[in-house]
Structures are given as structure tokens and as C-alpha cells.
Amino acid sequence: MKFKAEIDVMPLEALLDPQGKAVSASMKNLNLDEITNVRIGKHITLFVEANDEATANSKVDQACKKLLANPVMESYTFTLSAQ
């Protein structure tokens, strides 16, 4: 079976997010004072071939832990859907 994974990687809440801070500051220049505390991460889409959803889930989790996210600085979440 083929599964599609939608992965979101975000900086940990306790860490400074320079990109997010710069965007937050720019919101004031655009008269969007209501928007604050912007956090910027990355979105990754990939496909995985696996016999079942549990195996696909395990493979995507391994990819996130070993390559796609830095667990010291980032957290991740993902969803799987059969294709």
C-alpha cells in the first residue's frame, strides 16, 4: 500500500524563533497589530510504501527522528492517509 505523510516540523516553544520574531515585528508595519507570536517551521509531504498503516507510521516516525527534524530544537507531528 502507498501512504501519504503530511509532516509539520516546528521550533520548540522554549527556543527563540528568529524568523518568527522578524515576521511578528513586520506585522505592525502592515497594520496587522493583532497578529503576534508568529512561529515559522516547515511542512514536508512524502509517500511511503508499506504493508499496513502501522508500518508506514513507524517508517515516517523514523525518518522524522533521524533526518527531518532535530529533536534538540524542533518538534514534529504528522498524519498519514492511504493513497
As residue ranges, the low-confidence spans are none
Strand content: 25-35%
The main β sheet shows up as: 3 strands, antiparallel
User: Which structural class matches the secondary elements?
Assistant: alpha+beta
Tally of individual domains: 1
With strands numbered from the N-terminus, the spatial order across the biggest sheet is 2-1-3
**Based on CA inertia axes, which overall geometry fits?**
elongated
Q: Helicity, in percent?
A: 25-40%
Give a verbal description of the structure.
By secondary structure, the chain is of the alpha+beta class. The chain has a single domain (2-82), classed as Mth169, Chain: A (2-Layer Sandwich). It has 2 helices and 3 strands; from the N terminus they run βαβαβ. Strands 2-1-3 form a 3-stranded antiparallel sheet, with helices on one face. It is elongated. Keywords: ATP-binding, Cytoplasm, Ligase, Nucleotide-binding, Purine biosynthesis. One of its GO terms (biological process) is 'de novo' IMP biosynthetic process. It catalyses: N(2)-formyl-N(1)-(5-phospho-beta-D-ribosyl)glycinamide + L-glutamine + ATP + H2O = 2-formamido-N(1)-(5-O-phospho-beta-D-ribosyl)acetamidine + L-glutamate + ADP + phosphate + H(+).
Question: What keyword list fits this structure?
Answer:
83 residues, Mth169, Chain: A, three-stranded antiparallel beta sheet, 2 helices, 33% strand, purine biosynthesis
